[in-house]
Amino acid sequence: MTRMSRDFANTMQKEAVSAVSNDVIFASSRFPNYKLGTNNQILDSKEDPKVLSMKEVVARETALLLEQQKRLSVRDLANKFEKGLAAAAKLSEEARLREAASLEKHVLLKKLRDALEALRGRVAGRNKDDVEEAIAMVEALAVQLTQREGELIQEKAEVKKLANFLKQASEDAKKLVDEERAFARAEIESARAAVQRVEDALQEQEHMSRASGKQDLEELMKEVQEARRIKMLHQPSKVMDMEHELQALRTQLTEKSKRAIQLQKELAMTKRGEKNPLLYELDGPEALGSILQIVPCSDNAPEISQCIVQWRRVSSEGGKKELISGATKSVYAPEPYDVGRILQADVLFDEQRITLTTAGPIEQAPGLGSYVEALVRKHDTQFNVVVTQMNGAEHTSEAIHSLHVGKMRMKLCKGKTTVIKEYYSNSMQLCGVRGGGNAAPQALFWQVKSGVSFVLAFESERERNAAIMLARRFAYDCNIVLAGPQDRTPSATQ
Questions:
Q1: Among the listed residues 335, 360, 364, the one whose alpha carbon sits nearest the alpha carbon of residue 261
Q2: CA 407, 410, 416, 420: dihedral to nearest 10 degrees?
Q3: Which of 8, 24, 308, 451 is deepest in the core (most CB within 10 A)?
């Protein structure tokens, strides 16, 4: 039996370790500090609590992202996704390095085990037991390393999945940011265009207002100068005397006008060779702003309410007759469209027909033409009205409304509330009220569009006629002709 000395054992151990060290480069000069448990199981030493595992880092980052996703804006969310993507890439790189380190450890453990197996065949006794214990520790360490590799592979898959998710989320966030940016730019451009249109409209309106105001101011200055000149030339007593004389002349002129109309009617009857007087006649001034009424002039005349009445307008040039739609009452108030034309009323009873005709064309109201010309220069003219009918039904409220007649449209308002507004169109109709008694000269019929109509009462005949003429003038400038219902349809009887 060979005796092994202490020096010989140490020499063999040094040679064995030296042979292993020549092929393997250790990362550390000392062996890892492992603890053995029961059955030679290797127990991990307590890790540094400050160092987190890769799985914990990924879970914490995911929780933070999910928590902040609800309160972050689109741009901040995109930045977060980019940071998360960078962190995932960093973690993936760390996992790759750990995988490489794990592979290096496997190689090291294999060489160490091979060295220990070779050493176990050379030693005996207590040294052999130590070598076997070391081999068991190496095998246990290899098993644990394999387990850690499985965990590392799983963590790598999770990191890769998270990286893909963050990459897709980052791309979606960028796409959403681009869409929101494009939408915001479109909204900004639309708002700028709208502001520009409003500014152009305001500048145009201001320019027109200044021009109209300048003209009105010049006319007002001329009238004031003329009034001052008259006041300087005449004493107050002379002015009053002249006004009384003018009033007396107007009264005489009205009486003579009525007498002339009566004489013209008698002359017409004489020319026709009528021996017996007519049963009915037209009563009232034949001028705009008045009322023409069919009155009986004989005791044998039937009640006018039992007769059929139809008013027509006759052209003073060719005698062309036009039916006035809706004018079927015994009372008719001439409107501006009747000026310069002869009015005719047909009365039918017991298969008899009586035709009543005005002595001459309907005359214009004094001063109405110049008044309308002054209003034409304004961009918008307001009239105070009362709505008496709406869509053919009586309107009981007597609230004051304002009718705005503009260059492009008409608008009816009650205070600051707009009841209706409409641009001039071929479906719009505007004319005087047909019938209506003594209030007819102050009322007009306005059909805004199909199914929507109003009957409006003005403060005076002048305001009503001016509103009709002004609206027709503005509509004509827009290549639209405003008239009453079927006013342009000629009758069959010429």
A1: 360
A2: -150
A3: 24
d(Cα 467, Cα 383) in Å, to the nearest integer? Answer: 8
- Is residue 290 within 8 Å of 284, Cβ to Cβ? yes
Kindly list the structural domains of the chain, giving each domain's residue range(s) and its CATH number in brackets, ordered by start: 280-357 (2.60.40.2700), 368-478 (2.30.29.140)
Q: How far is CA 341 from CA 51, 222, 327, 328, 470, in A?
A: 108, 35, 16, 19, 20
**Per-residue model confidence (pLDDT) at position 269:** 61
Flag residues of the chain having pLDDT under 50: 1-32, 45-49, 275-276, 488-494
CA 420 to chain centre: 18
Helix (H) or strand (E) holding 255: helix 236-272
C-beta of residue 379 within 8 angstroms of C-beta of residue 407? yes
| Helices and strands (H and E) in the chain: how many | 7, 17
What is the model's pLDDT at position 446? 93
Give the pLDDT confidence of 52-67 residue by residue, as tens digits: 666 676 677 777 767 6
pLDDT at residue 375 in the model: 92
Residue 469 region, left (φ>0) first, then alpha (ψ -120 to 50), else beta?
alpha
pLDDT at 238: 61
- Tell me what pLDDT residue 405 has: 95
pLDDT of residue 352: 85
Residue 72 CB-density burial (10 A; 0-12 exposed, 13-18 middle, 19+ buried): middle
